[in-house]
Specification:
By secondary structure, this protein is an alpha/beta fold. It folds into 2 domains: 418 residues, ANL, N-terminal domain (Rossmann fold), CATH 3.40.50; 103 residues, ANL, C-terminal domain (GMP Synthetase, Chain A, domain 3), CATH 3.30.300. It contains 17 helices and 27 strands. It has a 9-stranded mixed sheet, with helices on both faces. It has a 5-stranded parallel sheet with strand order 4-3-5-6-7, with helices on one face. Strands 17, 18, 20, 21 and 22 form a 5-stranded antiparallel sheet that branches. The radius of gyration is 23 Å and the shape is globular. The model has no long low-confidence stretch (mean pLDDT 91).
Amino acid sequence: MSPVLLEKEQFVHGIWAESARDLEWQPGRPLNIGWQCSDRLCRLGLGEKPALLWEDHQGNARRYTFDDLRVLTNTMAAYLRDEAGLHPGERICLFLDRVPELYFGFLAILKMGGIVQPLFSAFGDDSLWTRLDNAGTAAVITQRKHLGKVRRARERLPELRTVVVVDAGDLALGPGELALDLERRERVERFAGLATDPETPSVLHYTSGTTGQPKGAQHVHLSVLGQALTARRVLDLGPDDVYWCNADPGWVTGTSYGIIGPWANGVTQAVLDAGFQSDRWYAFLEKYRVTVWYSAPTAIRLLMRDGTELARRYDLSALRHLASVGEPLNPEAVIWSREAFGRPFHDTYWQTETGAIVIANLPGMQVKPGSMGKPFPGVTAAVLDARTGEPVTAPGRAGLLALRPDFPSLIRSYWRNPDAFAAKFRNGWYLTGDRASIDADGYFWFVGRDDDVINTGGHLVGPFEIESAMLEHPAVAESAAVAKPDAVNMEVVKAFVVLKPGHAPNDDLELEIMNTLRRRLSPLAMPQEIAFVPSLPKTRSGKIMRRVLRAQEWGEPVGDLSTMMEE
């Protein structure tokens, strides 16, 4: 039994009913994300509108309309069902670079009733095997460059019976391996997709593992109500926009707002299948006249490192709205974006588990640099006392960030882990695992992951405040703050600093940084030690893995590292 409190009455009145009307859906009728994002739009007359503007690292480009999207996803769905022999409810993994087949495959799997399991194509053998094994995956759709990893995983996975290679060409394939050249297949105009119930499982996303073992977060088709509405209201997507979300669909942002949200609204989106490079990103924004850009703090900090002058070499005048997600956006990044682009990045807060944005700096809202913003209309958020579980009323007092579990995009379970899912709920609240505070104006402020908060001398100190203060020094590119053991205070703060190019660590620089911190922080929050490092451990979605740094300080096992970005 799911602790989710969602009731049908919520779709008769209120904001979620608005989304249901926009998607032409009524309670009691089937709901399928794949159909919503393709066939429905063609029926509305948007068939000739560009859906996907795709480019790879070599400059190869392709353009697909919504009618192309409809037909190609129908073709792929028919192939998976009729030739690959896959069935509704089976987990089908997308293990692909950001090639067009990744995006078509996502909708195709949903159309035929499968559960999409997107994974980063950069995962190593163990990372891939762990998630395929946990999910009981029936099929993997991949490229020949990744086939070796898939084959090695399959040797240990009896449930994995089918591998589909989208660019096999003349490659010799073995038993259970199939070639799918989507562009050369006979097009399927009509596909009788599965009439999925709104509560039918849709996407299985694994958490990023910043604080422990990744878990499979199971979403349902009803989530499209939240993703479509927040894409319009928070990301401000409209019919004339060209939108770029630079998140990989292996991460939930890359599906909720890199596939579902924009396409449910009939928005043209641009996709760059290439790694980070400042000038390449700026050139991409310029070339496709991107109007709305959704990025991550790590990427923004990397852009900051290269300065404002580089940004000003490109014509970025089409940009009208910027948003950020993944981890808290430091105030310095908001201030810098105003200088570089003439407008601030709007921070948004949500999780793999929430499936859609729940707290945000909405368009037109005053942006307080460093703040998460306010709850999205239709989402009830609070800060709870960790001891009593009751809402905290005093402004500025930190506690557990919690949400009423009554919005459509919240997960319905952790795959094969019901105990972990049940532990996320208390007194009718969903516990995010984060700590936050609320100011007198109703703005939420991130303090840190509950596991990241530093208890020094009985006082709780959040790492984000310390890290933001360190970034005020012009030599600091990135920072992280964790607890280290102390005989007197139990824990004290240790800071890790990555310097910008042209700066070298020395005692004078350390003193300068400390003086910067003294102007911003209380004595309790001051680091007792600064370590200069070449890089910080991050997940592949760009989140700093503070638990790895903390474990090293305490001499503890670092736990699962399968999501960690390789240097």
